[in-house]
Design a protein that fits this description.
The protein is an alpha+beta fold. The protein contains eight helices and seven strands, in the order αααββααββααβββα. β1 and β2 form a beta hairpin.
């Protein structure tokens, strides 16, 4: 007999909920917060906030700079994030394919997943022997509407209305998005990696506008798309479901 527990039936541990909310107050824009700022945003008393910060500091999820009087996320958060990313099957699965593309095409290859708002880079492979390298930082958040990978997620996701209808149709038809708006002189070509009917990730080639053609049907674009489709097949996306 199988029982289904609705989210509304699950008991809520207030301490855990508040601790998670407190950690969520930190962001790339505000990596450091004072006790007063945390108290105001958490909506608790100063004593209660202090108690939570103390507990989180003990387990390495928070750290405190006494000189500046500010809190920031602790090293344990980085470890947990790395563990979570390591658990994503696509990151491990894409490794050999990305390395092969780098070897064959001599361009940086980037893998991103959608975090609910924009693409986040989770793996990067580049040619370390190249004289001039284009370095993309793992963990970087890409623009949702102007990056090639952002366009892939919008075109194949539920938020495609943010794209012009003609652009969305073209991306879905070619299974490729090309963009050169994020960094001057740099171009990216991205393709979708599907798991079943869901978009699991986007894989992109990143290079100069001189080395990467703008046409979605270029040889490099076709090579990228073929590699992304192989990964989709490994994740369970049926070959006959691909576009012609």
């Amino acid at each position: 007999m199988t029982s289904h527990l609705r989210s509304s039936d699950a008991p809520v541990n207030q301490s855990v909920e508040r601790a998670v909310r407190l950690l969520g107050l930190f962001s790339a824009e505000e990596p450091e917060l004072t006790l007063a700022e945390l108290t105001t945003r958490l909506g608790t008393s100063k004593a209660t906030t202090h108690r939570y910060t103390l507990a989180l500091r003990r387990v390495g999820l928070l750290r405190f700079d006494r000189g500046a009087g500010v809190f920031s996320l602790g090293p344990r958060v980085v470890e947990l994030a790395a563990t979570a990313l390591a658990g994503l099957r696509i990151i491990k699965l894409a490794g050999p394919t990305m390395e092969q593309l780098v070897g064959e095409l001599n361009e940086t290859v980037v893998l991103s997943i959608w975090d609910g708002e924009s693409p986040v880079v989770v793996r990067v492979e580049d040619n370390t022997n190249r004289l001039v390298r284009i370095i993309v930082r793992t963990g970087a958040r890409l623009p949702r509407t102007t990056s090639a990978q952002g366009k892939i997620f919008l075109a194949f996701g539920t938020e495609g209305s943010e794209l012009e209808p003609s652009e969305r149709t073209s991306i879905r038809e070619h299974r490729v998005a090309v963009n050169s708006q994020v960094v001057e002189g740099i171009r990216a070509i991205a393709a979708p990696i599907l798991q079943g009917e869901e978009l699991a990730a986007s894989m992109a080639l990143v290079g100069t506008i001189a080395s990467l053609p703008e046409e979605p049907v270029s040889t490099l674009a076709r090579r990228l798309r073929a590699a992304a489709e192989r990964l989709s097949t490994e994740l369970g996306f049926l070959a006959e479901e691909r576009s012609a």
